[in-house]
Amino acid sequence: MPKVTVRYWAAAKAAAGVAEEPYDAATLAEALDAVRERHPGELARVLQRCSFLIDGDPVGTRGHETVRLADGGTVEVLPPFAGG
Questions:
Q1: How far, in Å, CA of 57 to CA of 16, rounded?
Q2: 8, 20, 26, 61: which has the highest count of C-beta atoms within 10 A?
Q3: Residues 6+ apart with CB under 8 A from 64
Q4: Rounded CA gap, 43 and 70, in Å?
């Protein structure tokens, strides 16, 4: 099982209470399920509005269960940002 780092930004970081944490997950869907299990409540709600980068590449509209994670990889959790 790949070991990945999930990094939280802005509202996701505030809701998680940490900037990043490790997870064992083979897909983005598995990683996000583990995040929701560890942080029920506000972070689970924030995740519904987030976009994600996997090792710097945007996930876009791909199904999270189809996005494979690499050992040592990084999942960036990006809530919508104000401004532009």
A1: 23
A2: 8
A3: 27, 28, 29, 32, 52
A4: 24
pLDDT per residue over 16-66, tens digit each?
Answer: 999 999 999 999 999 999 999 999 999 999 999 999 999 999 999 999 999
Q: Residue 46 in contact with residue 11, Cβ under 8 Å? A: yes
pLDDT band at 83 (very low <50, low <70, confident <90, very high): low
> Do 31 and 75 form a contact (C-beta atoms < 8 A)?
yes
Q: How buried is residue 75: exposed, middle or buried, by Cβ count under 10 Å (0-12/13-18/19+)?
A: buried
Please state, in angstroms and rounded to a whole number, the distance separating the CA atoms of residues 82 and 21. Answer: 25
CB atoms within 10 A of CB 32: 22
